[in-house]
Specification:
The chain is mostly helical. It is built from seven helices and no strands. Helix 1 packs antiparallel against helix 2, helix 2 packs across helix 3 and helix 3 runs antiparallel to helix 4. The longest helix is centred in the middle third of the chain and has 24 residues.
Length: about 140
């Protein structure tokens, strides 16, 4: 499982005394564990897809944080956050490009917004940004 890989890298960062990488790995692991407890309470299982969603959400949070530090002229913090972003980005699957999304939409019979969004959520849950899908769909 993907979480096992992240835990190994966290341990490696601990041994190397790389606090920056270790911080982001710890955040991901903690969010995953919290989700696991919630899922267990509801008699559900969690897996790699859930972990990918956690990573995607964390990346968005890091981008917002980076922007705030950039506006405050804190270049040291911006570099730290960029390192953290690069550290966890490698665990995401390859995202669909605008062109690939457009080609998929063109192959669909029903091109209504709800139908297209449902198709992408079911078939490409962690491989596309739904905001990008919506943008591409509106441009057609």
């Amino acid at each position: 499982m993907l979480i096992d890989e992240i835990k190994k890298e966290n341990l490696k960062a601990l041994k190397e005394k790389n606090d920056n990488k270790r911080a982001i790995y710890s955040v991901i692991i903690n969010k995953y564990m919290i989700l696991g407890y919630e899922a267990k309470a509801n008699n559900k299982e969690i897996g790699d897809d859930d972990l990918i969603k956690i990573i995607q959400k964390t990346l968005k949070e890091l981008e917002e944080e980076k922007e705030s530090y950039f506006k405050a002229n804190r270049e040291d913090k911006v570099k730290d956050i960029e390192t953290q972003i690069d550290t966890i980005k490698i665990y995401l699957p390859k995202m669909l490009s605008e062109e690939e999304i457009k080609n998929i939409i063109l192959t669909l019979e029903d091109k209504s917004i709800p139908s297209v969004m449902k198709h992408f959520k079911q078939n490409y849950p962690s491989n596309c940004d739904m905001g990008l899908v919506n943008k591409v769909l509106k441009s057609l």
